[in-house]
Amino acid sequence: MSIRFRGGTTVPTKPKKTGISTPTVDSELFDCAKRACKNSYAPYSRFRVGAAVRAASGKIYTGTNVENIAYPLGTCAEAGAIAAARVAEGGNLVLVDVAVYAEAGDAQHVPCTPCGGCRQRILEFGKNVRVQFFGTDLCCHEVTSGDLLPFSFEFDSKAEQ
Prior knowledge:
Elements: E1 2-4, E2 10-12, H1 27-37, E3 47-55, E4 60-64, H2 77-89, E5 95-104, H3 116-124, E6 130-134, E7 140-144, H4 145-148
Parallel strand pairs: 5-6
Antiparallel strand pairs: 1-2, 3-4, 3-5, 6-7
């Protein structure tokens, strides 16, 4: 099984294995993430990331990483996509799917999963969000947001004290 991007690039996918699978590769979402990756600002690391999120409304929003010479000030692609979705959808935002695509130097589709902070951000807007990314084997993998961060931070501010 493989995923085919617009422009002809084909990448293998991995069959179901230990909770990581690609039963249905979301080509539309990956195409959006790949296009977003092309707009990355990564002059220091040359590690470009694009992310695409699909809201429950069916609309897709994208983001890209933006580096800063003061490294801690950079932003992640997933955070940018989630912020764009929140602006457009407001308080009704529920994430359904996320795709992450990365390139490094001249290499395409390099391994990249959401960082810990972005895993928490994804969970903030959906407990069972489908997340697709390329693994170290350069195959496309799929997990849920809960699989990515099984011990996420949770706090019920309305709980009785």
